[in-house]
Amino acid sequence: MADERLQFHEMGIDDRLLKAVADLGWSQPTLIQEKAIPLALEGKDLLARARTGSGKTAAYAVPVAQRILTSKQSVREQDVRALILVPTKELGRQVQAMMKQLTAYCSRDVRVADISGKADLSAQKPILMEKPDVVVGTPSRVLAHLNAQNLVLHSSLEMLVVDEADLLFSFGFEADLKNLLCHLPKIYQSFLMSATLSEDVQALKELLLHNPVILKLQGSQLPDSSQLQQYSINCEEEDKFLLIYTLLKLRLVQGKTLVFVGAVERCYRLKLFLEQFGIPACVLNSELPVQSRCHIITQFNQGFYDYIIAADEQSLADPSAAPQMSAVKGKKKKTTEGGGKAKDKEYGVSRGVDFQNVANVINFDFPTTVESYIHRVGRTARADNPGTALSFISHTELGLLSEVEEALIGDKADSVLKPYKFKMEEIEGFRYRCRDAMRSVTKQAVKEARLKEIKQELLNSEKLKTYFEDNPRDLQLLRHDKDLHPAVVKPHLKNIPEYLVPETLRDVVNPLVSRKRRRMKKEKSKPEGVVKTSFKRNMKGTNPLKSFKYSGGRGKKGKTVQS
Ligand code: AMP
What we know:
Elements: H1 15-23, H2 31-41, E1 46-49, H3 56-74, E2 82-85, H4 89-102, E3 112-114, H5 121-129, E4 134-137, H6 139-147, E5 159-162, H7 165-170, H8 174-181, E6 189-194, H9 199-208, E7 213-216, E8 228-234, H10 237-249, E9 257-261, H11 264-275, E10 282-284, H12 290-301, E11 307-311, H13 314-317, E12 334-336, E13 342-344, E14 360-363, H14 370-377, E15 387-393, H15 398-409, E16 417-419, H16 431-440, H17 443-465, H18 467-470, H19 506-509, H20 511-525, H21 535-540
Parallel strand pairs: 1-6, 1-7, 2-4, 2-5, 3-4, 5-6, 8-15, 8-16, 9-11, 9-14, 10-11, 14-15
Antiparallel strand pairs: 12-13
Helix pairs in contact: 2-3, 3-4, 6-8, 10-16, 11-17, 12-17
The protein binds adenosine monophosphate.
Adenosine monophosphate is lined by residues 26, 29-30, 33, 53-58, 354, 356, 382-383.
């Protein structure tokens, strides 16, 4: 119960941190924060299994900041006191942002530097020379700086955090991590945060932690059905496009939505397809420069975009599928794919990254592992917010669905993924325009779009790096969801003739149509002679979907409606 939970102000935390927590609007700690913060403040090493979105960042960030503030009361010398290791650049940025928010009222005493993102070691050297109190970075980047002696930790380090430890392994950082430990002092306090307690994580625990307290807070890795609703629907390739078009165009899916696809090429195919219907979406994948990726996520979190189409590239997370996972010191960790484009192994969209207020996750392509399903779906229903996950399943993906269902069911009697009861036959009327749009999205168009976007984003990235540092307001003007246009756009596809919209959904889900209908009703109530005969009203009589039966609830913000 809320009032039984230990509150932030009862934990012995510095007032400046408490003030920042209040500014963040956090009325009480999450479960992991309630348990971890007091133990960490006692000086204990911690191993925490925390599901994504549980508030785990602050669970270690608050004690890290508190310990630095306490240390500084006796020792004034500036030194790096805490090191936070993360698996991806995106997560690095986020951790830094969270630390900065939490230390907003003591930013002079707790200085934080994120070195995960920038490409150039030499560009980061001056930052490290200033000895920030907290350094955030990926193991390979931190190790490179240690080897170059830009960073020296063996006498000053007081705290080490390994965040998303299981991902560090799956991203192939194991050797870097072990090498890095040789540069640390003998005694320091360690926190190991991980979504799963894999064998690798257990091994790391032996290496890093001394008499740790182990917190296994959640039995399940995803919130239960009162917070997160999970659905699946069987549909083959063409139907996937038909369904996503219908869901987005008719606004059956409302609120911010992440659409996951299985490959970079699919990102652009889907973006171009939606572009045909005037539905803007951002694309996110490992080929885009890191500045652009982070900017897209920031703007998405600020509410600039409704839809992100993200490629969740398994090969990047699976060392066996990606020979680029070199742990050789200082070696550049880039690989090349079919088109010769560089991919970034420190990219992780479904993992660790805090997309805020995501109402829906759509698996347009089903993930290839249970772990990936959990990470993707964990982007919604974060903190105490509700969320919906909907997976499109083709016959080739049925096996993967069973694996996920088996893993999630645990001791529950019912299947966790409920069937999404959408009657595909009732949107048959849209199939013709879908095919029309799909025909325009040729292989060549996709290839061109991919090249165009990367070129554009490289330009954007340069702007983000330099100009926008001095003009942060202008940052808002740079959008990432513009049309790419390599496919022929047929203007008539942007609008839906009313007769095509299933009758029973018209008022419920399509604000455009509803507006027109309301206007028509208004006109109808006007004195005779003012009302013009509406062509659309005449069309009603020939509506081929008149028999549509709607059995779902009314469309609500942030909800997925079923028919
Ligand atoms: P994390 O698991 O650290 O990625 O956090 C997930 C989300 O929960 C972030 O957007 C945090 O800002 C938010 N959050 C963290 N702690 C709290 C809290 N005590 N109350 C409300 N939201 C929180």
